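Form 12-C: Joint structure prediction
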Amino acid sequence: MLFSYIFGILIFGYAAWTISRFIKKSKQGRCATCALQKACEQKPSTCSNVVQIQKNEPQLIRNQHI
Amino acid sequence: MEVALLGNPNTGKTSLFNELTGSYEYVGNWTGVTVDKKVGTLKKQMGQLIDLPGVYALNPISKDEGIASQYLLENRFTSALNIVDASQLSRNLHLTVQLLEFGKPLVIGLNMVDVAKSRGIAIDVNQLSEELNVPVLPIVARTGKGCHDILNYFSLKNQHVSHFTIDYGEKIEKAIENISDLLHEEQLNHRWLALQLLQGNRVVLDHIKINKGIDIERIQRIIQELDKHIEEVEKCSLVRTIYSKRKHIIDDILSKVITREKKSDLTFTDSIDSIVTNKFLGIPIFLGIMYFIFHMTFNWIGTPVSDWLDGFFSGPLSGWIGQGLQVVHATPFIRALVLNGLVAGVGGVIVFVPQMIVLFFFISLIEDSGYMARVALVMDRIMQAAGLNGKSFIPLVIGFGCNIPGIMAARSIEQPKERLITVLITPLMSCSARLAVYSLFAGAFFAKYQALVVLSLYVLGILLALVMAKIFSLFFKHEHSVFVVELPPYRIPNAKTLFRSTWDKSKGFVKKATTFILGGTVVIWLLSYAGPHGLNVDIDHSFLALVCGYIAPLVAPLGFGTWQAATALVSGFLAKEAVVSTMSIVYHAPHSGTLTGVISQAFTPLQAYTFMVFSLLYIPCLSTVPAIYKEVGTRKLTWFTVTYCVVLAYIVSLVIYQGGRLMGF
Amino acid sequence: MILTELKKGEKATILNLSRTTKLVQRRLLDLGVTEGEEVCYKCALPFGGPCMLEVCGQCIGLRRNEAKEIQVVRT
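Section 2 - Result
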């Protein structure tokens, strides 16, 4: 009986931990569960850079004079 | 210490990064593999190494290039490591010159010296180092040769700051001086900033604008005046003039450094290209390769091994675990949790590992060989018809592995409109997680034609993506479409790289199955075990059946209006593999044999095919949604992507199911 | 003459690139493709698809309509 309790707590505890971690990582925009996970590893700071560049983009393309 | 890794695209920066940090990052043989900044710790704990996307020059065109330029401006790194492709020295040195002008300590890693040698290009490394006034270390990043020297170099404390200046001519030099005077508040090298401004570098201009003390208008006036003057005198634009000056110096250096033994030799690449980019065979060959991959994955290697695993899990393994639980006197609740929940659910996903390994192996093979860029070339005409360009096809192919890196790979597309549309359609690509769903259904219903059925789903994904791209492009202002792609020489894929890449992707799949798929499985099992009338209820009266029974009628017109199918689809939003693990639980009955057997009773072949199509399209998984948000930048567009996928899936599945029924299937 | 008039495998020197789209010009410049470089017209894909060129010891793919704007002279 004692074994069952411990085992049950372990399993449910692990399950709760994995789900909460997954949701937390998903919110951060990190590819927590992707099969190619490492391919998209990055620091959160990069994300802001990307958005910033995107804002400037139309000009970036228009203003190139060769 | 922070070292930035910079260089032209596809020169082996990430290969070197992996060697120097002992990590494994994604490598491949095409332009734009790395689209993001990656941070690693140098071996021997010397400091951090930053891998950046490849750039031809510091003035960016596409979004991934912008990340590299922005890094230079905003991060105070200690020194830069410039990877130079020895077989393409002339082009690579244009970037080197700009990095030297930047004025930070620089060291050159002269990569692919072996390739250069085979083409009859001999380089005098010492002479090159002397001419540029920086240390040059010859390496072969793919095999790791010479990488140790780089580590040794960084362990020395006294790093060399080079003094390398090009005389751009009186007028330009005067302008550089005038602009530099206005930049006194800036911390970065003034001459470099001035030169980048003269070249029209928007990222630099935006960086300067932040500093309120700088008179932007006066700077712009200086640039305009110079531009006009140069245009009149040289009959050539300012950008071109600066380029020519650099080219002149580079050619001069190269004449002292390079000795050519024979004409460049590309015969190996040429003969392959004459087949794969053949007028008529190009597209059929691509489809043929795909079919071959699926045939290997399903009919020849993957499924036989997977069937054996399945038999082992549902037979001996369940038996042993059951006996083990009996020995420790586990309660019936724990027994059901372990056997009907964990073993059935997680085991149901794990059995597809053999298919994944085979598929990932072939994807890695394509990535490392150089075929990817050819696919872009071959597909360009079709993509053009859909309002995109051939480069958009690369993210789609990467999406076959996982949609998230596919979505990110779109950054290497030059035109903002085409990039956005590519991001929007990439979720329709059939990722490896969906392959688990196909493996289950195709194995149960179309055993003989598995490869063909799966190929049809992949092609359907691509076709619908193209149709949607065409529709989306109607809503955008017309932009001139551009397609220039570098076709790198083919390489015999490196065994080590192949192994690492396959291992890494497969490990990801197993990790996912044993972490949060397991977590989800436990929740689903609990909901199927408990009901309004207490625990251990008949599964048809469980909470799961009750709740999902309300959703079932919605998908009934598509042929699978059972609460079991509805549950699988709902949990599939978390991750597509969860469709399989959920089905394993809800269809699990003691002594009913393997899941395949139960499934083949519950569906007709037409329903099964429709279910596969619906699973392919119906929603991007939970991890993909934030990735889409990060690339498109607005919540509205992210929601739009999710919604259109659902609507599209419903319509297409409805047409297939009802059409199939009319035709008598 | 223009680039696309070359036969498969023929070589020529680039005379003028200025009529191509600005963005293409910039990319070509990045790849080291400028006036005076030697170009080899390798093949073209059907239905007006892109063509394959060899310039500066590398292969590049380029849209046919852009290639039509490049003036060359046979060498």
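Section 3 - Comments
Residues 2-27 of chain A form the longest helix (26 residues). The interface with chain C takes residues 61, 64-66 of chain A (CB under 8 Å).
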